[in-house]
From TrEMBL:
A zinc finger (UBR-type) spans 81-152. It comes from Liparis tanakae. SUPFAM superfamilies: RING/U-box. Residues 1070-1082 have a biased composition (Basic and acidic residues). It holds the Pfam family zf-UBR. This is E3 ubiquitin-protein ligase. PROSITE patterns: ZF_RING_2 (PS50089), ZF_UBR (PS51157). Keywords: Metal-binding, Transferase, Ubl conjugation pathway, Zinc, Zinc-finger. Pathway: Protein modification; protein ubiquitination. Residues 1208-1263 form the RING-type domain. One of its GO terms (cellular component) is cytoplasm.
Amino acid sequence: MMAASLLRRDKKATAAHLKADLNRTDNGSGVRQLQELLDVVLNPETPAADTEALDWCKCLIAGGEGFEDFCKTVRSYDNATLCGLVWTANFVAYRCRTCGISPCMSLCAECFNNGDHTGHDFNMFRSQAGGACDCGDGNVMRESGFCRRHRLRTGENVPSIPRDLLLMSEMVLPHFILCIIQYLRDGYIEADTSTERDLQKVLQQLEPQISFLEELTKMGGAMRTVLTKILTNQQTFKELSMGQEENVYAKKNYDKYLSALQNSGLVSVEEKAQGATADVAVGAEGGAGAMALLGTTAPGSPDESSKEEDQDAGQSVGQRKRVKLSSSTKDPCIIESLKHKCFLEELLFWTIKYEFPQKMVTFLLNMLPDQDYKITFTKTFVQHYAFIMKTLMKSHESDTMSNRIVHISVQLFSNEELARHVTEECQLLDIMVTVLLYMMESCLIKSELQDEENSHHVVVNCSEALLKNNTYWPLVSDFINILSHQSVAKKFLEDHSLLMLWMSFVSFFQGMNLNKRELNEHVEFESQTYYAAFAAELEACAQPMWGLLTHCKVKEYSKTVVRYCLETLQIWFDAIGFVDEPAPNQVTFHLPLHRYYAMFLSKAVKCQGLDLDSLLPDQEMLMKIMVHPLQIQASLSEIHSNMWVRNGLQIKGQAMTYVQSHFCNSMIDPDIYLLQVCASRLDPDYFISSVFERFKVVDLLTMASQHQNAVLDSEQERPMLEGALTFLVILTSLRVHLGMTDDEILRSEMIPENPNPKSGIVPGSCSFEEMLSAVADFKAPVFEPGGSMQQGMYTPKAGIHTGNPWPPYKERTPLHPCYKGLIKLLHCKTLHIVIFTLLYKIWMDHPNMSEHVLCMVMYLIELGLDNQVQDNKEDEEPCIEEHCHDSWFPGTNLLSNLHHVINFVRVRVPETAPEVKREAPPSTSTEASSYGQNLREAQVFSLVSERRRKFQEIINRSNTEATQVVRPKSSSTRWVPPGAPPQLVTEILEIRESMLSLLIKLHQKLSSKQNSLSPSWLDDMDMSRHTHGDGITAIERILTKAAARSCQIKRSIQDICGKVCPPVPPKKNSPADKKTTDKEERRLRARERQQKLLAEFASRQKSFMETAMDVESPDTEAAMDLGAEVMESEVLYDCVICGQSGPSTDDRPIGLVVLLQASSVLGHRCQSKEAKKLPTSDEEHIYAADTCGVAHDVRLTLLQRFFNDSSCLQSVSIGWDGGVYVQTCGHTLHIDCHKSYMESLRNDQVLQGFSVDKGEFTCPLCRQFANSVLPCRPGRGTEAGSWHTATNKKTLVLVKEVEDLQEKLGLFQTESNLSKEMELVIKDVKNTTQKKYMDYGKNPGSSDNDFLFMYSVARTNLELELVHRGGHLCSGGASASAKRSCLSEYSSPLYL
């Protein structure tokens, strides 16, 4: 009754009366009246849209004053020292890196403009997810960057607030917040039955109430303090939220709330009831837990949830693993369901349940300037972290929700003091790592790497929405953010159990997105999962790694991480069943465990001075670690050699992304470094031979002119050999992690100077601008003539670039002492054998030898000369011939092996090779003795493979394990195609060359001079001019360096030069001798010119034939001969979609991409040459009586008047008006590939600008517009009958021949795919023009009309080609149009 009387009175008067009662000492009556009034006004059963309750609250809080005046009064007592302005997406804000302590610091425009940031490194940006101004927060930015307002610490000068000003607020707001919570409880429906529209409806009704709370926060620090006390008061929450047992509606809402809480923990109620709670504990020991995480659980263990298995039915899904917190975790709230103790906790809970509505997020963030609130809210946020993850995974709007999560978390975790506080009190690191583990375990599948059947390893499935949509991004972003704080990163590195847990998480990405090489047919659909895979490794693995590396400044930290990396790697090797050989035709670009090990190893050696050997495992483990990064390097060459072409373009995308500037610092750079470490500690012969085996070029490394290689095609051998040599050059010359300083790395990144430069910029480098100024000049922005502004840019300083010389491009950085073992690669017999063989093959002009091969060989030799092995006293000892019969070279030092002569080599060659001797065995005893001596001295060239196998046997014998391991078959096992290849026989080649002699002969070959190097050449050498240059300069530089380091080599060079070009005593040449010499030189030059002219003439003939075939023009006898040659081989076409080459067949025809257009150009041609005047009025017009189109219409009408209609239609041509012009860009594709391509265009949602339903598309290669595909006829080139010389036959004879041709049967006697496509093309041609231009006979739709139209299209295209060529087929070259004619291809459908 009391409340009813108060409701009838004026709101302001009632508020003033209640405020006065509450200010009395005995205010019990006022409290009861206010309580009864609020129970009626804020009744949750009243619709939320009713604004009456909100008006009452405003009046009550103001205490009888006007609400606007009340707000103004409260703001006058604002004691806040922080700005805290909150903004949403697309807000323009500033970030000053000079003032910022946290990388996430940001400022509003007002605070930035009122601060002093002159000369600072700042940028203006458009916020993606929203943010808040950090001005005034000394934990996030330096005080020197504060604006004038927040630098003055306004709170010190603000008077204390009167007690009665906010008295009503303290009494009213708890009930108001409870009312909002009750509305949220009542409006929520479980996710299974709710829709997004239902949730939005509830939020829309509550928008005025939430906006009112947001308005209160803007009153300043005084009001925020009141709100903080209300939101965090546990007693008030208990009394108001749970003390209403008599209220049926409130009790119902509370039950709904309890129901919603049931599944808020990581482990649901159902799972606990089934006994499926986490059974994998990662304690201090770490090993067993990590093993379970990697998938090697004990048989029969109940790890699988039946519910999840049902959801993943039909997929090859690995066992789901459940993980629980490490033993150091004290707060079990993350596992159990949530329990709330204050309004703030429940308010955040419902904010998460409703998927972070923007208004609620803004209100919660507006409260952050209050430090007590900020601490409590951060703890509450951490408490709900697992629940956030579960809600995020279920959300249909994960992108929006992710942005809003980060909007909140970045404000909390950017503060290092606060992050350290919640890390210590709430186990933030444990919670984050565990939540990430639980998140990823939902999309694990069994790994197919190595041993698919017996593998126990599980990896993330990159095709799952979790990875494809980057749903994990906000959680990973938070983890990266807190690791940017040194105190937090230090705590992470000190917690061994947490480190092992993280390594288990990283292992989920080890070997993901496995690629299997397609050997038979092209993959039907190209998966785009590699985008998700690369993004996941970069964000979830690499970025946390860089954060840890930045703060890993204690030796013990590095040792611990390295140890756990090795342990996890060993677990991974055991889980996939790896022994020593990788599975063939498989590659994964994702090895984060290898990269963690590599980067922490580099950090320990480079920055902390730790001994490398103390951090390395045994030899066998190093051999295992080496295999998969080496497989990636070999696969890069395979992909560029088109060996993976059947896997589609996506595999090339992966190879490009792997070395792309944004990824290479975290992918290929660690891989190369890890291989450098392995190479420096493993046997060099083993490593070199392993490289050439992985690159599949062992068979190519033979001195015979012919060889058999069933693994590679002939066109693939050269790029694979170039790839292997380039890899060795990079391995031995790259110094990114082997001694280069950060400034040197930065400079090398700005000016790429390596043979295959890779990114090496260290994240967070501080000298970027100084280095940039040293190597480049800034070109200021300028205005272009059109008025637009050209962006400013940096241009290299003069003298930076030196053209395209051979390496070395610059002086190499000295090698770190720990990696001196890498030099052994350059001084091992296996590499020297390869170098000798390649020099010999290049000199002998063997196939598949290129300039790049020679360039890389030269560079390897020079690297060996510049990096000599120390304490090798036998370098200068002469070679003793009888000690060399069982090996190629006397020692391992390159300097001594350069002048060693190889006399004979035993090779295995096909019996058809020219090296095979056809004559009988030696008959005399002397000859037989000589042959036997040669046989004994001949070197065996299977040394590369034999050395590797021998070393592998030694490693296997040294293995002390009792169990015997069955090793898989080597990847070198080859598939032998049908048909017996030529039998291999053993032959002995007489070589009698050394590396020095081959270098000198190659110098002669490159310089095209017989006496390019004289015996006295070394004495006259100027070293200064050989710093950079081409191949000739590179050889001279190598010879000069070798001679300077060894007197014996200098004598050998002089002897070889004297033998190759014997010295001629100086004398005056007689006129006759000079004449003879000049004549000989002229003859040689004439022969060279003749060869060049013949090659050029052959090239022109080929070009002419291609042009002539397009228009079917007759030509000379030479053209006929070339045409006959074309007949001998079947025509092969390249499909621009699948990349395969092959002939066009009846079953799988290949088509030409064409554009069909209606054209009336021919019909407008005039007989008279007189220029026509353009009409300028209605009376003037162009009379078309003398045009080609009118003339032919008149002619046909006249013929039809006197002759039979069928005869008339065979005697004329149409198409002068509305004819069809057939053009092509020249590219071909399989018809079935084209159909798949068109289907993908139909499914593409992007606006394309053409009609796919009408058959329109763009060429997949050149992107020219097209609308049909013209099938190519099967067969062997151009038919002989299509080429005719000029004839003198009479017209009647020619007519008779045409009639005979028409009487012949069509080509397609049986129905095939080709005939069907021909019929479709004819329909396309007909649909191109209007029907009136096809029916000229008296019987529309007759077959005579069809024949006339199709044959006339051929005539139309011939006539149009004549127009393009200026009236003559033999002049004018190719068609002047962008597309060329395809008249000869169009003749195929006419056979129908």
